[in-house]
Amino acid sequence: MLSQSLNRVIAAGLVTLLAASAPASACTGIRLKTADGGSVTGRTLEFGFFIPTEIVAIPRGQAFASKTTIGPGLAWAGKYASVGAALHGTDYLIDGMNEKGLAVGLFYFPTFASYAETTRDNQARSVAIVDFGTWLLTNFATLDEVRAAVGPGGVVIAPTLAPGFPPEPQPVHFVVYDKTGASIVIEPLDRKLKVYDNPLGVITNSPTFDWHMVNLRNYIALNPRNVPPVTINGTTIRQMGQGSGMLGLPGDFTPPSRFVRATVFSATAIPSKTAGEAVLQLFHILNNFDIPVGVAREEHDGVIHTDYTILTTARDPQALKYYWKTYDDQTIRSVGLNALDPNAKVILRVSTSGQQPVIDMTRAMK
User: Which of 16, 72, 83, 163 lies most in the core, judged by the most C-beta atoms within 10 Å?
Assistant: First the structure.
């Protein structure tokens, strides 16, 4: 296992690259309810350059020590085993789920994030941005516990990170789900952590979560049912084809448009019978948020940075299975948290990297 110091050097280099390339991260998260009362959640992960990730399984009892620019921050021993996607070589869970079914996702939140200043008074309860997801997953089982921990007098997110990180913190916010599918969003605003109820289970990026909820009022006429024919002066005018009830659904890749689409797609999905079936349905829905290389890009100093979907994940809190696929390999893979030893002594890892297999079926033709 890599040392804490080496882990942080690797992550620092990745975040430095993140700042230098000015990515327009376009992540999208959704929740699906199932007919048997369960739920599954998932998300896409986008950046303007490739970020190597690993699927990491963290057992109970692991010791963590967060850092701030003025010294050590919050230290803790993990209560719950967790699994999720982390920056390569680190325990920084940017997305994951714990043994109690609590799930957390980090999402980019540019121009709106405002972190509390780290002081001697709050230093001992300060958590670095990259540690926040791991802290949540290894410590809490319910949304009520999370609310209490990030409320007044609770944990704060450190505005700057360990030496080697860029001079300004990366702007992010977080979505949290419990085993039932209930959800909250945590945003660093006005130097405090603001918590919103998330009844739809949807999240994207900027602006603030409450703005996205208000913006949905512009799209309440959208309907999964096709529009009926209209007769005008004896002439019947019919729809051109399927999907007429969704005419006006925004199709671009901006966070507000993706929030609307994610809400509509998840709300109109016919519930799967089981969580296992819902996971596959969730991947189909998230395919609609795939960003291919080239369609969303910026140019800096003659270098093109193109946002694209690096990773897509799904979480089944009933079976405690974590699923993923990548841009280069659309094969869906999974890790079963309940099949691993929760009291193991080491953190387990597997790379998300892979190459899409193409199966030649010529000889199977009859």
Answer: 83
Cα 16 from chain centroid (whole Å): 21
Pairing of strands 348-351, 53-58: antiparallel
Tokens at residue 102, please? 């609590």
Report the greatest alpha carbon distance in the chain: 79
Q: Is 302 left (phi over 0), alpha (psi -120 to 50) or beta?
A: left
Q: Which range has the worst mean pLDDT, 45-59, 154-168, 269-283, 295-309?
A: 154-168
> The whole model's pTM is what?
0.90
The CA-atom distances, in angstroms, between 350 and each of 17, 24, 25, 57, 135 are 23, 27, 24, 9, 21
Q: Which residue out of 10, 12, 26, 27 is catalytically annotated?
A: 27
181 is catalytic: no
The three-state secondary structure class of 223 is coil
Q: Give the domains, in start order, of the chain with CATH numbers.
A: 4-207+255-355 (3.60.60.10)
Q: What are the structure tokens assigned to 231, written together?
A: 């007769």
> Over the stretch 89-120, which tens digit does the pLDDT of each residue have?
899 999 999 999 999 999 999 999 999 999 99
Residue 161 is predicted with a pLDDT of 55
User: Cα–Cα distance between 75 and 56 in angstroms, integer?
Assistant: 20
How large is the average pLDDT for residues 149-172?
A: 77
